[in-house]
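Journal club side-thread
Mid-discussion, someone asked how the predicted structure for our own chain would compare to the paper's figures. Pasting it here so we can look after the session.
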Amino acid sequence: MSDTVRTRYAPSPTGFMHIGGLYQALIAKKVANQTEGVFFLRIEDTDQKREVKNAVSGIVKSLQEFGIEPDEEVKLPDSVKNVLKVEEKDDTQLQKAIEMAK
């Protein structure tokens, strides 16, 4: 049995990042690092009615600002990818999130 752990942070893009989300992501990243495992970010699409424009890029940017980087590419469901395609093209964080999702 392997002692490595795969952890994830799976926020829904329904608004701004808050301290609880940062805490959850930090703990998940720390556990993955301590076990030489993998931490990944998966954006959820379970609450599409409350999705907020540019929330995905805000999540990615917030995590980066606090030094929390996923070990794998960001996982985005098709519904979120479609929303990202129609958002502002000049948002560099949005473009980075889209590139990470490919």
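Post-session note: Strands lie at 6-9, 38-41.
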